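Propose amino acids for all 422 sites.
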């Protein structure tokens, strides 16, 4: 009961403050400090309770009751260098730190069955610019938050094979802000009009895992997370001199559908010594299902945003070494392929592939564990020369954007996790 109370308190915190972070596409993999330090190399290892997020079949390696909770702090920054009718203009994203908490618990029921619960964020996005920046007619602020609760059952078939199945219950919150203009608004000298759309909704999916301990040295993991479709409902709020004076600029209800992709992860772990392990892995994410992000408003307006992304791959490698029984050192690397279709690129996700280097350390004291990790990401630039996204190269806008690209986009992630074995 004490373990359940600890987990319950941390789950409440996760649900209360879970936010967003920059990622390729907008998928997140920052699910534990140890996992981040190993560049997500926890599919084949899967040997601590955060395996519920990476490959839950691995929790059959954990005796008794184990819990973990922690937080990632993500600090992205980048510059948009845009060509306009008045020359080149550069804008840097506003400084921001996004929080991404996590919480896990596993409970061994008997020699064959384990229960698990994980609460973490699978997707997230946050970008903010000055309200009067050049690209304000596309957006000047976006915040996408997701929180997933995943109750899981894992079955140890025999000493070699384990499988798992989990139900994902996902909550999604989306807020976008942008400026509106038109020839009519310009003729009335009403200036830019603001529109803020807030919407939230729920979706359901599934998690499935397989873990095989081939021998004392080799293990293999396979994890599949299904697609989640969320029907989101909210409202559109207008602000400006004409707000409420025309039907098109009147506050109203809004709705839309967000289709979040499925993914398949493979990890192969090798442990030549008791204090040394390696893992290589790959994650395929079916971003080709993300065709559009459309918002429909009851006042007759609609925001149609074509995406038509392509499937993406993450390739990772990691090493973990324990110089002492109570002290671990970790390092990892991953590379992610581009997924964005630059024919529709916008300022919501100024990313087109990324590379990351991760470092981590952990200590054990009696039944406690403390892990810390750091990650630096280099994010490839996105080009806007050929985009048809609304508010960027749209003729007649005051911004007069004719092209450009993102540049110098990076993110730093700092992560801490605490664990306890009851």
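Proposal:
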């Amino acid at each position: 009961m004490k373990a359940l109370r600890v987990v319950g308190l941390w789950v409440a915190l996760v649900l209360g403050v879970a936010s967003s972070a920059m990622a390729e596409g907008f998928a997140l993999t920052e699910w534990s400090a140890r996992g981040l330090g190993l560049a997500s190399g926890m599919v084949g290892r899967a040997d601590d309770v955060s395996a519920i997020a990476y490959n839950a079949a691995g929790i059959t390696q954990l005796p008794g009751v184990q819990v973990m909770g922690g937080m990632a702090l993500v600090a992205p920054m980048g510059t948009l260098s845009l060509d306009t009718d008045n020359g080149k203009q550069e804008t840097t994203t506003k400084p921001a730190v996004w929080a991404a908490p996590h919480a896990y618990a596993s409970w061994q029921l008997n020699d064959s069955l384990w229960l698990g619960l994980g609460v973490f964020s699978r997707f997230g996005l946050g970008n903010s610019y000055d309200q009067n920046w050049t690209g304000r007619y596309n957006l000047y602020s976006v915040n996408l938050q997701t929180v997933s609760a995943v109750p899981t059952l894992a079955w140890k078939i025999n000493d070699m094979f384990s499988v798992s199945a989990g139900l994902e219950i996902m909550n999604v919150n989306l807020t976008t802000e942008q400026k509106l203009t038109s020839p009519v608004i310009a003729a009335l000298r009403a200036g830019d009009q603001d529109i803020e759309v807030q919407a939230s909704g729920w979706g359901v999916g599934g998690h499935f895992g397989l873990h095989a301990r081939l021998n004392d040295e080799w293990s293999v993991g396979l994890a599949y997370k299904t697609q989640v479709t969320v029907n989101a409902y909210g409202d559109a709020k207008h602000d400006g001199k004409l707000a409420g004076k025309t039907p098109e600029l009147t506050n109203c209800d809004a709705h839309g559908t967000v289709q979040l992709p499925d993914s398949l992860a493979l990890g192969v772990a090798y442990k030549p010594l008791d204090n040394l392990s390696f893992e290589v892995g790959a994650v395929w994410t079916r971003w080709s299902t993300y065709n559009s992000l459309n918002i429909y408003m009851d006042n007759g307006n609609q925001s149609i945003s074509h995406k038509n992304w392509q499937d993406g791959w993450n390739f990772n490698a990691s090493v973990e070494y324990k110089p002492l029984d109570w002290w671990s050192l970790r390092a990892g690397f991953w590379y992610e392929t581009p997924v964005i279709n630059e024919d529709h690129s916008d300022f919501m996700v100024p990313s087109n592939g990324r590379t990351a280097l991760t470092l981590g350390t952990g200590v054990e004291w009696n039944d406690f564990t403390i892990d810390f990790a750091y990650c630096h990401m280099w994010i490839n630039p996105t080009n806007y020369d050929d985009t048809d996204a609304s508010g960027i190269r749209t003729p007649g806008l005051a911004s007069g954007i004719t092209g450009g690209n993102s540049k110098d986009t990076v993110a730093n992630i700092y992560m801490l996790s605490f664990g306890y074995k009851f």
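Residues 111 and 156 are 8 Å apart (CA to CA). The helical segments are 2-17, 33-37, 51-54, 183-187.
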